[in-house]
């Protein structure tokens, strides 16, 4: 079974993020859920983004510290803002086994890129059809699938209503879509061994 580090979104390590992690654990995988906000749960995405701006470089340092004691052969996963942290590690930390990118995707070319996508590194990207944030990232997700290759990269777009649809503690939650995200993610992890 795979070992995963799952980074939370801009509203922190919510009960919904914890529940999602439990869904993956229920399939037999080890899932670490570091709290990069030290228990703070912003009331909105905007408040969370303000906290991220306030933390500045410290957020990345907290993420680095969270993975420092973990093995190198991790699958990196994250929601929205946490996706960018997961993607950075997947692309730059030696030993990555895969990436699960939820509700966001950073371009793999151009000025925002972390560098090239590692040859043969498996990735799944999941987003909502009616999510304005993911809509902006969809071209980057499509480019990643094209560059990585269809044999290792998958993109799933769900007919869900909004951003953070995978978090059962937030208003945009879509239970059916989230169940499918967890099912597909667990299958992805099982293929990694």
TrEMBL record:
The keyword Hydrolase applies. GO terms for molecular function: hydrolase activity. Keywords: Hydrolase. This is Dienelactone hydrolase. InterPro entries: AB_hydrolase_fold, Dienelactn_hydro, Dienelactone_hydrolase-like. Residues 4-191 form the Dienelactone hydrolase domain. It comes from the Bacteria.
